[in-house]
Amino acid sequence: VYQPGQFEARQPEAEPSLNPVGNFTVAPNPMWDAFTVTLDESYVGKPVTVRIISRLGQVVYEATYEQLPSDQIQLTAREMMAGMYQIQITTVDSLPVTKTIAVIKP
Asked: Who has greater pLDDT, 27 or 8?
């Protein structure tokens, strides 16, 4: 039987603060060969992970940079099949930022 004062109310523990990092662009998009990911200045000097994920959820490319040296990353789509993909950028203290890219084959 419940009696007043039997249970104490507690505040939930704070979760680590995760914020989305800055924006990025991909050009050209659609692409069939080389393409450039241009990141917001907030990425430079931070550890950054880049993933390209197929529509089936398979990671087809992943690279981690301990300290991103500049705001541009050069990538290639030569080995990728034609189709739609998600490119995802993540830092240690951020939520992933994702964009859709298209690979076409001539």
From this structure: 27
